[in-house]
Design brief:
Number of strands: 2
Radius of gyration: 23 Å
Helix content: over 70%
Shape: globular
Distance between the termini: 42 Å
Strand content: under 5%
Strand order of the largest sheet: 1-2
Number of helices: 22
Order of helices and strands: HHEEHHHHHHHHHHHHHHHHHHHH
Structural class: mainly alpha
Amino acid sequence: MNALEPLAVLVPLAAAAALIAVLDRIGRRAAEGIAIGAALISLGATVALLVRVAQNGTNVVWFGGWHPGNVVGLGIAFAVDPAAAAVGALVAVLVTGALVFSREYFAEVGTIFYVLVLAMLGAMIAFAYAADAFDLFVFYEVFSVAAYALAAYRIETKAAFEGALQFALTNTVAGLFILLGLALLEGRTGELNLSAIGRSLVAQHDAGVIAASSLAFISTGLFTRGALAPLHFWFDEAHASAPTPLCMILSGTMAPLALYGFVRFYWATYAGAMPANLALHGFVIGIGMLSVVIGALMCLRETQLKRAVAFSTVAHGGAALVAIGAFNAASLRDAALYVTSYGFGAAALFAAIAILRARSGHADVRALAGAGRRLPLTACAFALGTIAITVVPLGTEPLARGCGIAVGIVTGGAFARTYWRIFLQRKGRAAEPQGVPWFMLGPALAFGIAPLAFAIPAVREFAALGAAGMVDRHAYSVALFGGAVPKLAPPPLERVGVGIALAPLGAAALAWLALVPSRAAVRERRAWSRGRALAALAKLHDGNSGQYIAWVAGTAAFAAVLWAWAG
């Protein structure tokens, strides 16, 4: 059996269990060292597996010797294709960086914090690698429950309690919808392996309603956890109250994992029985465009910086979903590069915001005017994060590209203006530059620089290979159940001249936005933000958990009826 897959998952989970066993008997630095060490081992295993998959193709592990017979998979399988390997490595990089950042972020922190982060790390990697539906659900629940607890880490504050409660309630309902969808699939097919379910659905010509309903429930659950409108209302509250390391993980990995889960479920399980039709295209693209509009407008309106980044995650996730809604390999590759670049950019922004709050005591842009003018490295991290979420072109599909450009202009413009107010204005009290530790600055700068890797042709070619593997359900099935795996034909790389040309133009536009006269800009923004439509939109984010759950249930019902009728 290959050792890398279990190593990447079991080391952080085993380290979490060991820390629980000695919960109050070791000091903070010892717990911290164990957690970072385990994360680094997991990171090394995911990167080594990424290299192996790039060289040799999909790597399959059936645990416990339960190998399939006649395409009936009773055992637990990990199928690590290029996409799964890349997602696992991304998770490990961001979580390891968040752990390093947390070393100086907390004045005091208990061992339980490291236990929860390690549990999230192991479960998220396992989610990326798992090839059967039930284990996907279990691992998703493990890291979701750990995230609920981390969101309530500062439980002594009312905001933390309310944010964590809304997070937990809404996402628990989302998990129930996912479980209901899986129950429909298992009851109809008798299978839990993703590929085996797909083969069974194709063989059963009368399974259309079951397939449509289960996909609607699973998609709604995943879109809720991916913070896509109108299922995103819990997201900004969770970010506002959660520790910054968790915010990095939520926006950088948890939201993209939901998109990955949807793509994996659809192409491995549903593509044969439910080829993409107008209803499927329309619903997915509609959710994406609604997320673009709501996320971008709320980001532009928001003055609390962590909430602003959360709303930008909603908008950028929506733009990526518009690309995914084209249901082809080229758009999927573009969406993967886009959300990965955004994840690093958002992590850099969160790190810079945390440093500003540590230096000044504030996280609201109105109280931070001029506070960062003596923090040049923090300003650099903030600028790199802003560029990363702004100038990455989104693909060859005109609609997706348009959404990506629009989101970049609006959210990038919002953060560019914030940059000007915090780091370039001369009024206000400047934060003291002494004492910003490298354990905070290092991850912030590294996250900001990381998106430059996506300009490397080899990285883009690997993304193309991963996208081709995701949409080739036959190759995925053959890798799991035996036979000759056909050679993947990745889509041709698009000409990147347009994207390269847009990058300096976008940067120039952001500079102009940041340098417009401040008083006129503030008056204009205040007048616009008083508009009835925007006020009504803001009122929807009022913390009413019952309302949030109603949106989840209504979306699931609408999708189920639409897809069953269209099928």
